[in-house]
Amino acid sequence: MNHAKFTLTFIAAMTLFSATSALALPSDREKPIHISSDSADIDDKNGISIYRGNVIMTQGTTRLTGDIVTIYSQDRQIQKVVSEGKKKKAYFEEEQDSEKGLLKAWGKTIKYYLDNEKVELIKQARLEQKGDTFTGDMIEYDKQAQVVKAKADGANEGKRVEMVIQPRQ
Q: Which helix (H) or strand (E) covers residue 15, if one does?
């Protein structure tokens, strides 16, 4: 693929994924958070809760899963959620408007910053929507700024950021 075509494809993919982030259902933030796990260690004083064993966290149409989920809060307001996948990748999904559908994301670690609406997918990162995919070693997804940044594994030669963009009907 020549440089100009790659650049155009990359810009198209960035636009696709970054524009969808602003379209999450607004009612999700007003819904209660539900968490299920095999065990929970909650330290209210320090604002750290650790959930272990097939953890499932939902809020409205937003869903986060992992083997270990750590929640950091201040004054009983969640600031950051870190989901780690040990047996399988951590997973994040969020329903967008009806035109965009479901946004899905995977990584060995997922960091979700609720206060500034950023999602970081770390190691074996993948972002997917309506058949379009974006893969890399790390994907940073800034929902407010509508920006996606992806990086390849610099230590592993031959690994690159890859995108698949489906034709639109």
A: helix 3-21
